[in-house]
Design goal:
heterotrimer, A alpha+beta, B mainly beta, C alpha+beta, A: alpha+beta, Gyrase A, domain 2, 2 domains, 6-stranded antiparallel beta sheet, 5-stranded antiparallel beta sheet, 34% strand, C: alpha+beta, Ubiquitin-like (UB roll), FAD/NAD(P)-binding domain, 7-stranded mixed beta sheet, 6-stranded mixed beta sheet, 23 helices, 50 strands, GcvT_C (chain C), transferase (chain C), GcvT/YgfZ_C (chain C)
């Protein structure tokens, strides 16, 4: 029988440690995109709550700590870190292999992202558990604050190399400032 | 320039893709007169002042929105999702 | 020379730098201008047009004269202002626009020819003969006139761009800005305080004022310390706000690394271009002192009075041994007092006003004016008139002050016009010019220190009040002297009275413009080039307006101002384009098989953002065509494997999914059976073809659509538009799954045999007919199989979750090679599809209809769809339109080219005779001929006709036969095999 071997999106690219930041790849496990049908939002949220303990998130928010629901666009969320239950009132799409996910953390993480991202990620307005769909240079990304100075960045899997390149360049510039 | 996405909040213009006048929402019936279709497809006024424009939050949530904007002062008066908006 | 006990740089380490090869010592962190003056260097450059010797005029970013070139090679920076460049050990600086040397500049003959080089010279002189433009005018004049130059080498320096957000942006950190920041910072709002200087404090660093009983510079340092300790305040030094844009967005350029040797910080960006978003802003940009236009007022040693005080009080440098001062306001006397206190001789104060008293022990000449100056490379003496006579005064430094212009520039960036203030004799900002921005301090016309502090505090308090925050206004004591000024724009006398030093514009040029009826200020500007140099006339524009107003018999307010546009200071193109070189230019999308392909030495070709293999060279093959022909043979004769993951894949679900597809596709999908695939044609609303691809029905309410690689993004946007805007009544959801699945074409007579070596359960022809699809298992991994073909052969596409893509590709290629097949790339894929007449975006290029490509019968008449109504327009169904055909080189061996146009045999190859054009070509190893696809007027009626393909660009002419676009296996027997 054929044997297929897994490769992660950022294989060979990460981890990196530059100045005040560390960047490493995150494996979210099973990722399911859920988009409730018309009138199905409540039933979907209730079903999620019953099965994995998280409700369907509001825009720009995530819910949960173990299994998480990450808002990812108009009437859509990603259920990560656990199996998604049957959701008869929603479109359900496997996205487990669709994303390159990296965690960037450290005192300068916010400064590094400010080189690349037009959205406001200041700690005073973008708090832990907040998420945003925005752009990282030319790429569409989702960014979630997962700690006081830690962010999770999700980009298209095929763009993993560019994601790492852009983060690395920005981090080098920020790190160099600390030396003068 | 910044636009107020009704879903995401105010965002930088670079996250948005511009389509044109909001009259593109008023799609004629398939059997409508040729002149009606020509107006819908091609004829646009070039207004100085308050306009209603279609923008797509392509670099954000993916919502199509109608932005009410003044082309003279560049003031943005507001935005709402299409479907809830009429042309 | 240095003045003992003056300045704030006593403790700085000594560094060495070179200017035109000569080594000098200076203090680390002081400006190049201060260091040069400390070393007695007064001549620093030659002027733009007349190559006149020029020196340092100002002590800030408005400097018109002292522009230098820093460094050599790719990193060479031209036109750097000596007044803002901070020196460091090893800094190398050169003067500009002089040859062979600054002192003996050959081009200074231009100055002797000055009468011929007046305003409008270019317009009047270089009209004819036309040939002289290229042979004489352009090369010679270009060389003679100009500023610094780039090296022409690639610049490896790092530049950066960044975003910032705040509640309140405070622009400028002089007394008003610092007070505004203290007021807002103490109230707890999120503040950014930006200042273009290396040190915050503004004029407090350059004057001898006290604040709260403290030395002004000390008060500023304390204020900065307090602000630096606040978490809610961000201090940005060396950062100039360059532009005000819509909705509270500001541009800024930060000089990050120009004050550091490259070797000391190789990764340090030189500059960072900021986009700052602020809910409110307070402009505290201060004011700029303006010169007076008196005869020969441009000699090295003549500078602004405020600059003399800056060099003396801040940098501890006296710009001369015997200083004279010429002014129309009290700053003259302030300068004299400071100089005398420092022990520098004041040779005389010339005040244009009649009724003024000396403020110290110096000769005062009232009702005075400077009427002449002497000194070829540096000022030696001046001639003055005054209340009781004329006299000559020996002086090596003349400080001038024509009053102050509030720095209104940013308030004009969104169409605002400043207001003329008759008391200040200046333009002041007009309220509300920039939404959300208020102006404070000298920028708003508050000329005393106390006035600046008070307006800064009030401005900040008002701004944070808009945000719902109450701030306490608590202002320290400071001088509150009135600002006394009398108008004086120009002084009569023999010699040119310079206005715009950087573009060499003088009073007579403005008068000539008025005389020749260029009376509008905008016309005058363009005719004389006043204010069009890199300093944008910061110090000269208002005086030039005053001269124009006088020459045209109007007042200054009626004359109006030119338009101030961003950027306020020059911004490097490198900063604007930061991050966009190399990999930063565009994202690279790599397939899961990328490394396997490059490991086989496959050259990559860009397809949109994707990188795809062109061909896989085999040992001994010398050309791409050899490889391509071999790979075509794999598919026609055995089996080939190709990564097709780049095609867009869109998952579509919902109760109305079928109805939705019927609306976005020209043909019908509601009738498609489950586990079947159908080719679909998508139109734009204007009736032309948008895209094509196959869509599979995976379940009753579940489809997966394929788009072309090139149009995947466009189609997704289109679907979102249709679903949200046009058919919100349809309950359908879609998501891109392009990234989720790695998908490979397995094509050729042995494709099924190959698949059966990797699938857990073998497939048969009966269960998997052409255009079927379904789930399969590979090594226990669930995948999808589609029996579809883009080559005309018996073929499949197999998809697995992307994490297994690299592994499956290697497995499939290995199995193919064991069956006398192998991997194929884009070149072979292209040949295979041209042989079958399958279209790509080379054919559906935006101007073709379903009718043009022979697919009009696919456009369903039974339903409405996007583009249906427009596709019925008469002109789009005209048989004479250019329609898809095949083209075959008549002798088979003549190569035909894409882009060639087609003509009837014997007709001239001109556009009137155009019969169509060629879109795709290839050498077909299967047919042993050059073939192509193209569009010919009424093409389907002209099969068998000979046409001539003419490629004017490549100089190729070939006779072709018009034929069916399906060259190979027209019955389609192989695909069903």
């Amino acid at each position: 029988m054929a044997k297929l071997i897994e490769t992660t999106p950022c294989a060979g690219l990460l981890p990196l440690s530059i100045g005040g930041v560390n960047i490493h790849e995150i494996n979210l496990g099973q990722v399911t995109l859920v988009a409730p049908y018309a009138g199905g939002a409540k039933a979907t949220s209730d079903a999620l709550k019953a099965a994995i303990g998280v409700t369907f998130p509001k825009p720009n928010r995530t819910n949960g700590a173990g299994p998480r629901a990450i808002w990812c666009g108009l009437d859509q969320a990603l259920i990560v870190g656990g199996a998604c239950p049957d959701l008869p009132q929603a479109a359900v799409v496997d996205h487990s292999d669709a994303w390159a996910v990296v965690r960037i953390e450290g005192a300068e993480a916010e400064a590094v992202l400010a080189r690349l991202v037009p959205a406001d990620l200041r700690a005073s307005v973008f708090k832990r558990g907040h998420t945003v769909r925005t752009m990282l240079v030319h790429m569409n990304v989702g960014i979630t604050r997962v700690g006081a100075s830690a962010f999770e960045v999700m980009a298209m899997r095929s763009m993993a190399g560019t994601l790492v390149h852009d983060l690395e360049q920005a981090a080098k510039g920020v790190a160099a400032r600390a030396l003068i | 320039m910044r636009l107020p996405c009704p879903i995401c909040g105010e965002r930088d213009r670079r996250e948005f893709y511009y389509k044109g006048d909001a009259l593109a929402l008023d799609r004629p019936a398939g059997d409508a007169d040729g002149g009606v279709w020509d107006d819908y497809l091609h004829n646009r006024d070039n207004l100085a002042g308050v306009v209603r424009e279609l923008w797509h939050h392509a670099g954000g949530c993916g919502a199509w929105i109608v932005v009410t904007r003044d082309t003279v002062t560049h003031e943005v008066h507001g935005a709402e999702r299409v479907g809830k908006a009429k042309a | 020379m240095r003045v003992a006990g003056k300045g704030h740089t006593d403790a700085a380490e000594t560094v060495h730098f070179t200017f035109d090869g000569q080594s000098y010592a200076g203090r680390k962190g002081e400006t190049l201008a201060a260091a040069l003056l400390a070393n007695g260097v007064k001549l620093v450059g030659r002027s733009f047009k007349y190559h006149r010797p020029r020196g340092i005029v100002t002590a800030g970013s408005e400097e018109p004269n002292a522009l230098v070139t820093v460094g050599t090679g790719g990193g060479q920076d031209p036109n750097v202002r000596a007044t803002t460049l901070e020196i460091y050990d090893g800094l190398e600086v050169r003067s500009q626009n002089a040859w062979p040397s600054l002192k003996y500049d050959m081009m200074s003959v231009n100055d002797l020819a000055a009468p011929f080089l007046s305003a409008g010279f270019y317009y009047k002189t270089f009209m004819w003969p036309k040939a002289f433009w290229e042979s004489l005018y352009e090369p010679v004049i270009r060389k003679a006139a100009g500023l610094g130059a780039l090296s022409g080498d690639i610049n490896d320096d790092i530049y950066e761009k960044a975003f910032a957000h705040c509640d309140l942006l405070i622009i400028g950190a002089g007394p008003a800005g610092l007070m505004a920041a203290l007021t807002a910072g103490r109230a707890g709002v999120d503040v950014i305080l930006a200042d273009e200087d290396s040190q915050m404090g503004g004029r407090l660093l350059a004057e001898t004022f006290t604040v709260d009983g403290q030395d002004g510079a000390d008060w500023a340092a304390d204020a900065v310390s307090e602000l630096a300790a606040m978490d809610n305040v961000r201090l940005m030094t060396r950062t100039t706000i360059t532009g005000a844009y819509d909705q509270g967005t500001y541009g800024a350029i930060e000089q990050v690394g120009h004050h550091v040797a490259r070797a000391d910080a190789p990764d340090l960006p030189r500059e960072c271009f900021w986009r700052i978003v602020a809910k409110r802003a307070v402009l505290c940009a201060g004011a700029l002192e303006r010169p007076i236009a008196f005869p020969n007022n441009d000699r090295p040693g003549i500078m602004m009075a405020s600059a003399v005080r800056s060099y003396l009080n801040r940098w501890g440098v006296a710009p001369g041994k015997a200083v004279t001062i010429f002014a129309n306001n009290d700053d003259a006397h302030r300068t004299a007092v400071d100089l005398i206190a420092a022990g520098v001789k004041v040779a005389g104060v010339i005040d244009v006003r009649a009724d003024v008293q000396a403020m110290g022990d110096y000769p005062l000449y009232t009702s005075g004016a400077v009427t002449a100056t002497k000194g070829r490379l540096a000022l030696e003496s001046i001639t003055i008139t005054h209340a009781v006579g004329t006299r000559e005064i020996r002086t090596d430094c003349l400080a001038m002050s024509g009053g102050w212009n509030p720095t209104v520039h940013l308030t004009c960036h969104m169409n605002g016009r400043p207001t003329w203030d008759e008391t200040l004799l200046s333009f002041v900002p007009t309220d509300g010019s920039i939404p959300g921005l208020t102006v404070a301090g000298a920028a708003a016309g508050h000329m005393s220190t106390l006035g600046a502090l008070q307006s800064g505090a009030k401005g900040a308090a008002a701004a944070v009040a808009d945000l719902g925050v109450t701030a306490k206004v608590d202002v320290p004591t400071a001088e509150d002297d009135p600002y006394r000024i009398e108008a004086c724009w120009q002084v009569d006398g023999k010699g040119r009275k310079w206005l715009d030093f950087q573009n060499d514009v003088h009073v007579k040029d403005i008068k000539l413009a008025a005389q020749e009826n260029f009376r509008s200020v905008e016309h005058m500007k363009r005719y004389t080039t006043q204010g069009m140099a890199t300093d944008q006339g910061k110090s000269s524009n208002v005086a030039a307006l005053a001269v124009l107003a006088d020459a045209t018999g109007r007042g200054i307010p009626e004359t109006g101002t030119t338009t101030f546009r961003p950027p306020y200071v020059p911004v490097s193109i490198a900063a604007m384009g930061a991050g966009s070189q190399g990999h930063g230019f565009a994202p690279k999308r790599l397939t899961t098989s990328h490394h396997a392909s490059t490991g086989r030495s496959a050259p990559m070709i860009e397809a949109g953002l994707w990188y795809r293999p062109s061909y896989f060279p085999a040992p001994g093959e010398k050309t791409w065509l050899e490889s391509c022909n071999r790979e075509v043979g794999y598919v026609r004769d055995a089996v080939g494997v190709c990564d097709v993951s780049t095609l867009g894949k869109i998952d579509i679900q919902g109760p109305d999914a079928a109805a939705f597809l019927d609306f976005v596709y020209a043909n019908t999908f509601s009738t498609l059976r489950e586990n079947r695939v159908r080719y679909g044609l998508m139109l734009r609303e204007d009736g032309h073809v948008m895209d094509d691809g196959t869509t599979a029905r995976l379940g009753a309410d579940h489809y997966v659509m394929t788009t072309t690689t090139a149009a995947a993004g466009q189609v997704m946007t289109h679907l979102e538009w249709v679903a949200q805007a046009l058919r919100p009544d349809l309950d359908v959801r879609f998501a891109s799954v392009t990234e989720q699945w790695a998908q490979f074409a397995v094509a050729g007579p042995r494709s099924r045999a190959l698949l059966n070596t990797v699938l857990d359960d073998p497939i048969t022809g009966e269960d998997w007919p052409f255009m079927s699809c379904g789930a399969v298992s590979i090594g226990g991994i669930e995948g999808r199989l589609f029996r579809i073909s883009f080559s005309g052969e018996h073929a499949y596409e197999i998809a697995v979750p992307s994490r297994y893509g690299a592994s499956l590709f290697r497995l499939l290629v290995a199995q193919a090679e064991a069956m006398e097949g192998g991997a194929y790339g884009m070149e072979a894929l292209n040949v295979l599809r041209i042989e079958k007449g399958f279209i790509t975006h080379a054919e559906i290029h935006g101007r073709v209809t379903a009718f043009d490509i022979g697919m009009d019968r696919m456009v369903s008449r039974k339903k409405d769809c996007i583009g249906f109504a427009a596709s019925r327009r008469e002109g789009l169904l005209d048989g004479q339109r250019e329609r898809l055909v095949g083209l075959r080189s008549v002798n088979g061996t003549d190569k035909i080219t894409a882009g060639a146009h087609l003509f009837v045999e014997g007709a001239d190859a001109v556009s009137d005779n155009d019969q169509g054009y060629i879109t795709s070509v290839c050498w077909s190893p299967t047919l042993d001929s050059h073939i192509g696809l193209g569009f010919v007027k009424d093409g389907p009626s002209r099969l068998g006709e000979h046409v001539v393909a003419v490629d004017h660009v490549r100089g190729v002419t070939v006779t072709c036969e018009v034929c069916s676009p399906v060259f190979f296996d027209p019955d389609g027997g192989r695909v069903r095999g």
